[in-house]
Amino acid sequence: MSTATTQDTRPALKFITCGSVDDGKSTLIGRLLVDSKAVLQDHLAGVQRQGETDLALLTDGLSSEREQGITIDVAYRYFSTEDRKFIIGDAPGHEQYTRNMVTAASGADAAVVLVDATKLPWQDAELALLPQTRRHSLLLKLLRVPSVIFAVNKLDAVADSALAFRRIAAALGRFAQDAGLSVTATVPVSALKGWNVVEAAAEPDWCGYQGPTLLEILEHLPVTQADIDMPLSFPVQWVEKQSASSDTRQGRRVFWGRVATGQASPGQTLRILPSGQTAVIAQVLDHARQPGDVSANHGAGIVLDREVDVSRGDWLYADDVSHQVQGQRTLRAIVAWLDDEALQPGRVYWALHGHRWVKAKVQRIVHRLDIHTLEEQDATQLEPNAIGHIELALQEPLLTLPYTQSRTLGALVLVDTASHRTSGALMVL
What we know:
- With 429 residues, the chain is an alpha+beta fold.
- Helices cover 19% and strands 33% of the residues.
- It has helices spanning 2-9, 25-35, 41-45, 63-68, 98-105, 131-142, 161-179, 214-219, 319-324; strands spanning 13-19, 48-49, 52-53, 75-80, 85-90, 110-116, 147-153, 185-188, 233-241, 253-258, 263-264, 269-273, 278-285, 294-295, 299-304, 315-318, 328-337, 348-353, 356-369, 376-377, 387-398, 411-416, 422-428.
- The termini are far apart.
C-alpha cells in the first residue's frame, strides 16, 4: 500500500527520444511499453505487420506516419513501473520536422538520443556522427534539458558489437566535450530484441557493458525543479469576470494562468506589464478554486485588491523584479530556425512571450553555428533548421531573463506575420 501511495504522488519524469531518422526511436518506446507491461494484448494485436508485432506502430498514430513508416508529429505515451511514472515524447528525426522536436524538448526533464550503429563507419576509430544526431544534441543543450542519455542502437546487427560500441561511444564523448554537453550515460541497446532496454542483454557483458539498463537509468533521473526560489512572475491567459459584488476590498475579476516563477501569495505587491501599474494580491485560487498559495508550474487565479486594467497577454511581476530588471526593447538570443523560408535581417515577425504578442524586427544575424565543427561563422541568413545568434528590436518592451536563469522567462517563439507559421524558437542571452 505504501509503495502505491509513493508512486501516485511522485512527479512523473518527462523525457523524449530523438536523433536521426530511422534510428529506432519509435521502436525503443514500443519496447519500453511492451516490456514494462504497459500495453494491453488487444492493442498489441492491432499493431501487427506480416504476422509480427511492429513496435513502432504503438507511437506512430497518424495515418501518414503508418503509411510512410516515419514519425511526423510528437507522440506522447504514458506508463509506469513500481518505482516511477513516465511521460514519453517520441520526437521525429526528419530535418523538416525539427520544430516538433524543439517543442517536445523545451519542457522535457531528460532526453534519450538514439544512435544507429549500422549507419556509422564504426571500423574507423575517428568516425563522424550523423548531422541530425549532432543537431538534436546541440538543441538539447540550448534548451537546457537537464539529463541526456546516448543510446547506441542496433548493435545486434553489426559484426563486432563490442568494437562498434567502444568507437561510437568515444565519438559521442568527443562531440559532447567539444559542445560542452553534459551526458548522463551512454548505453548499448537493441530496441528490436529488447537488450538493455528494460531487461539486461541476453549475452553477459554484451558490448563490454556492465552498467544499468536504460529503464533503470531513467527511474533514477531527477525531475526538473520549478523556479520556486525566484520572484513571482505570472502570464495572464484568461480573465474571468465575476458577478457584481459590493465588496470593495478587492477587484471583481480573476486573472487565470500558470505561475511561471516564484509563488503567488496574498499580500504581494505586483507590477503589471505593459501598463506599469501596481496592485496588491488580495486572493489566490488554485486549479480547484480553493484559496491558498500557488507555486511555479501550477495553475492559479489571482484577484487584485482593486480594479486594474489587465488583459490576456499581460504579465504580473513581483514589484522587486520589475525594479531589478527593466523591460527590454532589444534582445540578443540564440535561435533555432524552424521555418521553410530562410531568416534574413530586416524581416518582421510576431514574438510570443508567455501569452503576449509583440512585433519583432530582426536587426542582424551575429553568427551561424556550424553543427559539424561547432564554430561560429559569419552569415547573412539562416537556412531552415540552422542554429544562430541574432539581435531583435521589439515594438514594445518585454521583461525577460536569460534562458540560463529561467526556461520560462527566457523563451520566445517567432511567428510569421503572413503565414502564421512557427518560424523560430528563441533563447534569450
